[in-house]
Design a protein that fits this description.
single chain; about 210 residues; alpha/beta; seven-stranded mixed β-sheet; 6 helices; about 25% helix; globular
């Protein structure tokens, strides 16, 4: 059974954050809230934990795994950002957007697309996610809490937690209902940028810079 950590959604308790981060460093896989939906995550630098997340989601080896960064400057360590991509991201960060970008050598192979050498990165507008990133000091894996054999959108945390209780090591509970809309995905490896998935916040995207596939 997963350990449940209760956190205040606005002022998360530093001691509890520290306990969660310690578990992540040791390879724990967690279920946690973001500014879009609940996500399955772990320390990006823990190879064993990343592999567990991939297995849980049944992701093929050519599927990249999205991860969270704390800021735009933090993204620059893990991805090559063109001037045009930077200008667009600066307008949208933090927020419900996943950016597909060329990966640097700091991104583990387990996380990126091996053929395109790209990766998906988000900067969440979310207190809990940002607190975890700050305490951990490196990116956190973030893939939606939906299992390949279950397409259910959980409208309450009780059902969501029950579904993942035996699949993850820890669950973060803020007392708030789970989000229902995933992030919008923008491919910034092409010009003009390509809107790959219409998710949360897509209406706010600048039409002149984004095309829909």
């Amino acid at each position: 059974m997963a350990a449940i950590f209760e956190l205040h959604s606005v002022n998360p308790q530093p001691r509890t954050i520290a306990q969660i981060v310690e578990a992540l460093k040791e390879g724990a896989v967690m279920l946690y809230p973001t500014d879009t939906v609940y996500a399955i995550g772990c320390d990006m630098n823990h190879k064993g934990a990343v592999q567990r997340v991939r297995q849980l989601k049944q992701l093929s080896n050519d599927k990249p795994v999205t991860f969270l960064c704390s800021s735009l400057s933090n993204i620059a360590q893990y991805a090559y950002v063109s001037d045009s991509a930077y200008r667009l991201m600066r307008r949208l960060i933090p927020g419900p957007y996943t950016f597909l970008l060329p990966a640097t050598k700091l991104v583990p192979r387990l996380v990126q697309n091996p053929k395109r050498k790209t990766t998906g990165i988000r900067v969440p507008d979310h207190t809990i996610s940002q607190a975890l990133l700050a305490a951990l000091g490196n990116p956190i894996i973030s893939t939606s809490a939906r299992l390949p054999d279950d397409e259910t959108y959980y409208v309450n945390t009780a059902d969501l937690f029950d579904a993942f209780d035996k699949r993850v090591d820890l669950i973060i509970d803020t007392g708030e209902p789970p989000g229902q809309q995933m992030s919008s995905i923008l491919d910034l490896t092409v010009e003009p940028p390509l809107l790959v998935r219409k998710g949360q916040g897509w209406e706010a995207l600048p039409a002149e810079m984004v095309t829909v596939d």
